[in-house]
Amino acid sequence: MCGTGTVKRVLSVLSVFVAGLCFGQGNSNILQVIEGGGAEPTGSTLEYYGAAQGYLAEPTGDGPHGAVILIHEWNGLVERVKQVADALAAQGYIALAADLYSGRTGSNPQENIALVRETRANPDEIIANLNAAVAYLKARSDSNGLVATIGWCFGGGVALSFALGGEHHDGTAIFYGQLLADPAELAKIDHEVFGAFAGQDRGIPVDQVHAFVAALNEAGIPNDVHIYDPVQHGFWLYVERDADTNREPAKDTWDRLSAYFERVLGRASTSN
């Protein structure tokens, strides 16, 4: 674990801006959700830390199950993130969508920016929030003790910060989140890192991604980081914004991500 100085440095620069055959029908479920065809969320609210209103989606079967913490974008814990949590639970993972905004969501860029600024002004609170999520998931009787995070945009940068400054966990998946390129700092990560970035992202240009990968490699951190082109920032969680361009990159990303989860969390377990 590193000190809060590293965490603060990472958070201060946050931008506001081959699945295995065992996955079966779950693959199309995820893709349906991120194309805008998801069903109404069916999980439950979980008060896992202070005023945080997290969202819990639980798999069927006795387990043991790996677990995923979902870290929302700048607008907060909205329905799309909850739908992805449901889809991950259908895969066989315990899915907890964290709430960094104490139950609030933004409805326009001005509100979103205000929430981001308020939240990243207290990086220790962010880490404590996610530490509590890890503790809850590891303590469940149906958990295999393995936990990964996945975050998008603001949440992607938070996921990286948590990999540097949080309690031990087993995987970090960064979707177009703000990055570091310091091998000495990145060497504090103790697990493989997954990344998906956009070739046309003006907030996180490709040279920053290349520098991040080079630093991970220098630090000896295994990684699976890919830049997709010609997609733009946000291409995965909301595929329907430009479906013709985003669909194939989003599917390839999911194939890689599901294989990554199997590597770091173990094979998903369901009653089917």
Reported CATH architecture: 3-Layer(aba) Sandwich
Assign the structural class, choosing from mainly alpha, mainly beta, alpha/beta, alpha+beta, or little secondary structure: alpha/beta
Q: Estimate the helix proportion, in percent.
A: 40-55%
| Oligomeric state of the chains in view | single chain
Which key phrases capture this entry?
alpha/beta; 9 helices; 8-stranded mixed sheet; disordered N terminus; Rossmann fold
Q: Explain this structure to me?
A:
It is a single chain. By secondary structure, this protein is of the alpha/beta class. The protein has a single domain, classed as Rossmann fold. Helices cover 43% and strands 17% of the residues. The protein contains nine helices and eight strands. It has an eight-stranded mixed beta sheet with strand order 1-2-4-3-5-6-7-8, sandwiched between helices. Strand 5, helix 6 (154-165) and strand 6 (171-175) form a beta-alpha-beta unit. The longest helix has 23 residues, at 243-265. The relative contact order is 0.18. Mean pLDDT is 91; it is low at 1-28.
